[in-house]
Write a structure and sequence with these properties.
Helix 4 runs antiparallel to helix 5. The longest helix has about 35 residues. The protein has one domain. The chain is mainly α.
Length: about 140
């Protein structure tokens, strides 16, 4: 029993490390390759400029999903966790945009705040779809 718990803990740590790597690589790829090539055009410039906020909100909000699934937390409590984390991440990214603390933001940009909100909402939607599939699968098994 204890061996199974250790395996689950390692598995969701590995999933979160993969998510962190995805965040880092996607933001770096955007910053180093996509943004210099296409950042001068008005719409694409906005999209590439706000991409890091979107990805940060989306990926960071996905971090709690693996432990929730691994620990079989009840859906109601899992929703509460995801929704609260999403709101907190959005608030922190918005504060960082308004008053830079960690150097992630160099100037105020409304599009970055909108991208953070969209990333948080998409993370919630991803969670709901994922949980919906798990519930549907469990009902088919029973």
């Amino acid at each position: 029993m204890e061996q199974s718990k250790i395996f689950r803990n390692k598995r969701y740590i590995a999933i979160n490390l993969i998510l962190f790597a995805l965040l880092y690589l996607s933001v770096t790829f955007n910053k180093e390759i996509i943004r210099p090539l296409y950042g001068q055009t008005p719409i694409i410039g906005i999209l590439t400029g706000s991409f890091s906020n979107f990805m940060a909100a989306y990926i960071i909000n996905l971090f709690p999903i693996a432990p929730i699934i691994a620990k079989n937390i009840k859906i109601k409590k899992a929703r509460l966790i995801i929704y609260v984390v999403s709101i907190l991440v959005f608030i922190i990214l918005t504060i960082e945009e308004l008053k830079p603390m960690w150097g992630a933001s160099t100037q105020y940009d409304l599009f970055d705040i909108l991208a953070s909100g969209l990333g948080s909402l998409l993370a919630i939607l991803t969670f709901e779809i994922f949980i919906g599939k798990i519930v549907k699968k469990q009902k088919l098994i029973i």
